[in-house]
Design a protein that fits this description.
Elements: H1 2-17, E1 30-36, H2 41-53, H3 60-65, E2 70-74, H4 85-94, H5 116-122, E3 126-134, H6 138-144, H7 153-162, E4 167-171, H8 191-197, E5 200-203, H9 206-211, E6 216-220, H10 240-251, E7 258-264, H11 267-272, H12 276-299, E8 303-309, E9 312-313, E10 317-318, H13 325-329, H14 335-342, H15 348-359, H16 365-373, H17 375-379, H18 389-395, H19 397-400, E11 402-403, E12 409-410, E13 414-419, E14 428-431, H20 433-444
Parallel strand pairs: 1-7, 1-8, 2-14, 3-4, 3-7, 4-6, 5-6
Antiparallel strand pairs: 2-13, 8-13, 9-12, 10-11
Bound molecules: zinc ion.
C-alpha cells in the first residue's frame, strides 16, 4: 500500500514536472541542434554581460530566447547526479537515460541505442557534426557512434565515417592516423585515405574550408582539439561560425532536409581550467554560430533550431564589486598558453612576468607565491585537474572579478531554447532526454 501511494505520488510529481510533448503542430524539414559544452547560466551571464557592456551588442542567443521558447533543463544521468558530456549528449541523442562515460549504448554496455541522427539518415536526410573540440569527443560521438566508453576515440572515428555523416568537422585528427603517421591508431589504418576512397573531401585549413563546394566533407583542423578562440588568430583554423555556415550550405542541398549538431566544444575546456577570458571568448564564438543557425532558420522557417548545453563546468560566477570586464578584454591568451609558459615549477618572478605578458595584470609577490604554492590543488587534486590554474584564477579575483567553485562539472540547471517548428515544447522545466522526443516529433509531424 505504501508502495502504491509512493508510486502515485511519484507519477504526480513527474507529470507536474514535465509538460506534454505532443499536440504541437511541429513540421520541421531541418534540425540544427547547437550545444554549448559546459555552458551553464554562469558562462551565459558572463558572455551576455561582456557582449552588452564591452562589445555593445546583444547575444544572438538572447535574440532566440526573446522568441519566448525557453526552458530550464535538468540533465541527471542514470548513475550520477552530476553528469558529463558522454551521458548528456547520449541522452539528448537517444532520449534514454545513460550511464556516465557511455556513448549511445544501453546499460549493458553493448546494445546500441538509435540516435536522432540515425533516424534522420533513415529518412533520407543529410547529416552533419561540427565541434571545436575533437570530432571524436563525446558530444559529436554520441550522435553517430556507439561505444562502451568515450575514451575509445579510434572506434568513434571509424564509426562516424562508416555512418556516412556527410559533414564531419573539428579537431583530433590523431584518431584518424596510425602511430607511424604521428596518430593514435594502433591498427595501422589511415582513415583519411579511407575517407577519400569513400568520397569525402578531406581538408585541414580555413582556406580549404572556404573553397569546398559540397559533397561529403571531413575537416580535421588540428591533431588535438582546435585552438581556443582567444588563440586562434595565430593558426590556420576556421571559426565555429565559419564551419557552421559551410555545413548549412552543404547539407541544405538535400531536398529531404538535414540534421546538424553544432558544438561549442571548448567552453567546457576553458572553464575546467578556470580561464574567465577564455570561457567568455569561447561562449561568444558559440553565440556567433548560433547567429548563423538563426539566420538560416529565418530564411528557412521549416527549420527547428535548438540551443542548449550538456552541463555546467567549474561553477563560474561574476563577483559583485570586483567584476572588471575591461580587464578581461585585455587578456591576450588562454590559460593553456599561460600554463605552457609557466612550465612545471615556475619561480614567483616567472609567474608575475607570464601573468603580465599574457593576462595584462600585475599581481603582487605574495599573489605569485600563492600560485607557486598552489595550496587548494594540493588539498584536493581530484577536484583540480590543472595544477596552479585554480590558484591563479583565485589571485586574479580582485583583478577580473570572476570566481570559480572547482575544476569539475557542477549540478546546475541549464537553459534550452529555440526557434521554429517544434520549439513550442521548449518551455517550463524539461529533462535533456526530452530534447530527443521534441526533435523526433518535429520530424514525424512533417507532411
Ligand atoms: Zn567537462
Amino acid at each position: 500500500m505504501r508502495y502504491r501511494i509512493r508510486s502515485a505520488a511519484l507519477f504526480l510529481l513527474i507529470s507536474s514536472l514535465f509538460l506534454p510533448l505532443s499536440g504541437f503542430a511541429g513540421q520541421a524539414k531541418n534540425i540544427i541542434l547547437m550545444i554549448g559544452d559546459g555552458m551553464g547560466p554562469g558562462q551565459f551571464a558572463a558572455a551576455w554581460l561582456y557582449s552588452n557592456k564591452i562589445l555593445n551588442k546583444e547575444l544572438r542567443m538572447v535574440e532566440v530566447m526573446k522568441g519566448g521558447r525557453t526552458a530550464f533543463l535538468a540533465n541527471g544521468a542514470a548513475d550520477a547526479i552530476v553528469t558529463e558530456s558522454a551521458a548528456a549528449a547520449s541522452q539528448i541523442a537517444t532520449g534514454m537515460m545513460m550511464t556516465t562515460g557511455t556513448i549511445s549504448m544501453a546499460a549493458d554496455g553493448k546494445t546500441p541505442v538509435k540516435t536522432i541522427l540515425e533516424i534522420a539518415k533513415d529518412r533520407g536526410m543529410a547529416t552533419g557534426l561540427v565541434t571545436t573540440s575533437g570530432i571524436t569527443d563525446a558530444t559529436p560521438a554520441a550522435f553517430a557512434a556507439h561505444v562502451a566508453h568515450r575514451s575509445d576515440e579510434t572506434a568513434v572515428a571509424d564509426q562516424e565515417l562508416r555512418a556516412g555523416v556527410e559533414v564531419l568537422m573539428g579537431g583530433r585528427k590523431q584518431f584518424f592516423l596510425s602511430e607511424v603517421a604521428a596518430g593514435k591508431r594502433k591498427d595501422g589504418r589511415n582513415l583519411l585515405d579511407e575517407a577519400r576512397a569513400a568520397g569525402y573531401v578531406v581538408i585541414d585549413t580555413a582556406d580549404e574550408l572556404k573553397r569546398v563546394e559540397g559533397g561529403k566533407v571531413l575537416g580535421l583542423f588540428n591533431m588535438g582539439n582546435m585552438a581556443y578562440e582567444i588563440d586562434r588568430g595565430a593558426t590556420a583554423e576556421p571559426s565555429l561560425a565559419e564551419m557552421t555556415t559551410k555545413t548549412l550550405q552543404i547539407l541544405s542541398r538535400n531536398p529531404k532536409g538535414f540534421f546538424a549538431m553544432i558544438e561549442g566544444g571548448r567552453i567546457d575546456h576553458a572553464a575546467h581550467q578556470n580561464d574567465a577570458a577564455g570561457t567568455i571568448r569561447e561562449t561568444l564564438a558559440f553565440d556567433e554560430a548560433v547567429g548563423v543557425g538563426l539566420d538560416f532558420q529565418r530564411k528557412n522557417p521549416d527549420t527547428l533550431v535548438i540551443v542548449t548545453a550538456d552541463h555546467e563546468t567549474g561553477g563560474m560566477a561574476i563577483i559583485g564589486n570586483s567584476v572588471d570586464l575591461a580587464a578581461i578584454r585585455k587578456v591576450q591568451a588562454s590559460f593553456e598558453v599561460v600554463a605552457d609558459a609557466l612550465g612545471m615549477n615556475p619561480t614567483p618572478e616567472k609567474v608575475r612576468e607570464v601573468v603580465k605578458r599574457y593576462l595584462a595584470v600585475e599581481i603582487t609577490d605574495d599573489e605569485a607565491k600563492m600560485v607557486t604554492c598552489d595550496p587548494i590543488w594540493k588539498l584536493g587534486p581530484h577536484n583540480y585537474a590543472y595544477p596552479m590554474m585554480h590558484s591563479l584564477a583565485f589571485v586574479l579575483r580582485p583583478y577580473l572579478g570572476v570566481g570559480w567553485v572547482s575544476q569539475t562539472h557542477i549540478a546546475s540547471l541549464l537553459l534550452a531554447f529555440g526557434s521554429g517548428p517544434g520549439s513550442e515544447a521548449l518551455v517550463g522545466f524539461r529533462h535533456n532526454t526530452e530534447l530527443f522526443q521534441i526533435m523526433k516529433n518535429a520530424l514525424e509531424e512533417r507532411k
